[in-house]
Amino acid sequence: KIKPSFQEILDITRCAICLETVRPEIVQCVNGHLLCGECRQGLKDCPTCRQPFSTAELSLVLRQMLDALPKRCKYTNCKIYLKHADDHEKWCGFQPTSCKIMKCNWTGPGRDILSHLQGKHSTVYVLGESNEHLSITNFEFSSDHISRFSPISAHGQFFWIEQFCDFAKEMLTITFYLVPNSKPIDDYLIDMSFTSKDSFIGSKFKFDFEQNKVKNSVFVPRHCLPSFVDEKKRLNCKLFITRHQRDVSIAET
Question: Which residues form the domain of 56?
């Protein structure tokens, strides 16, 4: 008996536009019909009764009740219902992303990026967890060197590597970006190194899931680069991504 009553409450609190439980900033019309603040944009009247919107604030009890109700994930095609303070949307595989391959205009759910690459960019090599011999081809450090991206599929997660020549700082910056598909349960240790007969530069760090660009980057000074570029203009390096069980006591703080 409780379940049908609860479903009735969910039906009453549905937005007339998206048909999901209303989301902040919630607005109502003079007759009390509710809409999500985002869905209300561009509307002059309530789509249910064609009456104007009210400027009155929702009552405290109604706001508390709406906050307590589970809400469906905001991303299209995701059917997960969220509890209060749930961080599912941060990691949802249905949130939109774009392909970083040059001249590709594809956008779609993050969970589909790997299948997109395999279907539309079959000649693009997707890196894995272990890359003993990784080369950045046609490498040249110049002020007009645009960002280049390489895809990585490692331990069930998808990353982009961006290579950017920072001319102002005289530095090659290599940054790792995660495309969310589901909430990671492990930590990922990234180990990248450049080696030549006379030089070595290495960087090992734990990937920062808050996507802090500085923390997720490797920096190679410009004056060191000639040692690692061969006669075919290939910048050679090694890259390994290993998975480690997360320390729950630290992760939850």
Answer: 4-69
- DSSP states of 1-19: -HHHHHHHHHHHTB-TTT-
Per-residue pLDDT of the chain (253 residues; tens, 9 = 90+): 456 667 787 788 888 888 888 887 889 999 989 998 889 998 999 999 999 999 888 888 888 878 777 788 889 899 888 877 789 999 999 999 999 998 999 999 999 999 999 999 999 989 998 887 888 777 777 766 668 899 999 999 999 999 998 888 889 999 999 999 999 999 999 999 998 888 899 999 999 999 999 999 999 999 998 889 888 888 889 999 999 987 654 444 3
Q: Quick one: which H or E segment has residue 120? A: helix 113-120
Q: Tell me, what CATH number does 44's domain have?
A: 3.30.40.10
